[in-house]
Amino acid sequence: MKGLILCGGRGTRLRPYSYSRPKHLLPVANRPVIAYVIDKMRQAGIREIGIVVPPYFRFQFEEVLGQYSGDVALSFIEQPEAKGLAHAVGMARDFIGNDPFLLFLGDNFYDGKLNELIERFRKEGPEALLLVSQVQNPSQFGVVEFKGSQIVRLWEKPKDPPSSYAIIGVYILTPKIFDVIDDLRPSARGEYELTDAIQGLIDKGYAVTASPCRSWWKDTGQPKDLLACNRQVLLNLQGEIRGSNVTIVSSMIQEPVVIETGAYIEDSVIRGPVSIGIGARIIRSYVGPFTSVGEGVHLVDAEIENSIVLNGSHVKKVSKRIDESIIGSEVQIEGSRGNPRSIRMNVGDHTTMFLPIEDE
């Protein structure tokens, strides 16, 4: 069995972070979201993975994911235009060949194991097996309609959902899906929908089944979702994992924490679960639970918790605690005691800021 990860789309709901990088490479506990997908496939015994990417981001994917591939062979497949999930799958026909394949949407986070899903597929032999989960807002997802254990209909974001079972972005498919994709027509929104392709299998009389999701999962399409995934990963930390050449001076470290190579911590409090990246410097600061501090980040006279700070950013002399925030890469945030006591900022497109209101 091969693996296929779809990484198309421009990630508009994750701007401004997705302007300079694909959303799938945004970090959760200092590792790209897609790295966790690769890990899950490796743990399930998959050693060949195709990654469908837009041409303008291919180099970034190759550069970043090389360090996470390990014993897995990664093949990068370009999708010249974003024409939908089924179109993206169709681009991988040559890579897949005659093998069944595990398909994963690259911006989804799944905290379970895939072995049980694969074993069920091999035992039952359907043409498609979908991982589904009951949700409170099914109209925002692809939804399945059942007759017994068989799926009889798929709906893409229906106004009146026939069930509360949503497709969560994990599938096992056979190469028969490509024959259906060849005959697909664009949907009302101009895309070739994967739900339509799987419906085509059903219409041809093939077995399409579902497996209930019993593990934590999240579509990381928005900043709040990325923070939720960061919390989930950090919850799984145990003890202290410390790299080489770590310096800790007059500081309190409360486990669980990951402190990577070359980090420097002085006169600070680190209260886990926390992940501190390579070469980070934390001085006279507080880093609270569920925070990921990226590579080369400087925190000086600052307090932060439940947040993600991307590589190379500097936060200095900030009088208020930063909470539930994502700070992009190479950002400078610095407090000032000079007059006038004004706020100065250079804020890019699609930025959101919440400033505390001082009571008079």
Helices and strands in order:
Blueprint: E1 2-6, E2 27-28, E3 31-32, H1 33-43, E4 48-53, H2 58-65, E5 73-78, H3 85-90, H4 93-96, E6 101-105, E7 108-110, H5 115-124, E8 128-134, E9 142-147, E10 150-156, E11 165-173, H6 176-182, H7 194-203, E12 208-212, E13 217-219, H8 223-235, E14 240-242, E15 247-249, E16 252-254, E17 257-259, E18 264-266, E19 269-271, E20 274-276, E21 281-283, E22 286-287, E23 291-293, E24 298-300, E25 303-305, E26 308-309, E27 314-316, E28 322-323, E29 326-327, E30 332-334
Parallel strand pairs: 1-4, 1-6, 4-5, 8-12, 14-17, 15-18, 16-19, 17-20, 18-21, 19-22, 20-23, 21-24, 22-25, 23-26, 24-27, 25-28, 26-29, 27-30
Antiparallel strand pairs: 2-3, 6-11, 7-13, 8-11, 9-10
Helix pairs in contact: 6-7
Which architecture of the largest domain per CATH?
Alpha-Beta Complex
Q: In CATH's first tier, which class of the largest domain applies?
A: Alpha Beta
Helix proportion = 10-25%
Quick check: average pLDDT? 87
CA-based gyration radius: 22 Å
- Per CATH, the superfamily of the largest domain is Spore Coat Polysaccharide Biosynthesis Protein SpsA, Chain A
Shape designation:
elongated
The separation of the N and C termini measures 65 Å
**Residue share in β-strands:** 25-35%
Helix/strand structural class? alpha/beta
SS summary, helix count: 8
CATH fold topology of the largest domain: Spore Coat Polysaccharide Biosynthesis Protein SpsA, Chain A
Q: How many distinct beta strands?
A: 30
Unreliable spans: none
Strand order across the biggest sheet? 5-4-1-6-11-8-12
Q: What does the main sheet amount to?
A: 7 strands, mixed
